[in-house]
Structure formats: structure tokens, C-alpha cells
Amino acid sequence: MIGWMRHTPRWAVASTCGIAAVPLLVGAVAHLADLLSHGVHLHGWAPRWLNLSWSSLALFDTLAAVLLLRGRRPGARPW
Fold it and tell me: Would you state the pLDDT for residue 33?
């Protein structure tokens, strides 16, 4: 666990991370549904880079929710 999580009761950390992960998972499902029903070029008016970034959120929202629920921050470890 990281920073403030070490000094906070485990139930509070788990509930906060769970509540924060719900909108990310809902967003991931919405982006995945758009991707499956309309393909990568969802908005005909938008440039290609915007459509690709919108579609990539299906992956990145899921990844953010999973990392949040794991309760660990990847990257450099404190000394």
C-alpha cells in the first residue's frame, strides 16, 4: 500500500478504492460497447486521432480500475 493508505483503516481504503473503480469500469464497458458496435471510427465528424483515443479508453479505463483495486502503485519504490 502507498502513502496515506498505510495509516488509514483497511476497510476505508478498500471501500474508497472500490467506489472509485466503479465509474472506471462503467466507462470501460461503455467504450467497449461503442468499439464493438461502431468500430474504431465511432464519430464521423472527429479526426482519426480523436476516435483512436476514445476507443483506447476501453483498455486504459480497465487498466486503471485493475491497478486501483490491486491497491499497489507500480513504478519506483521508496528507499
Answer: 93
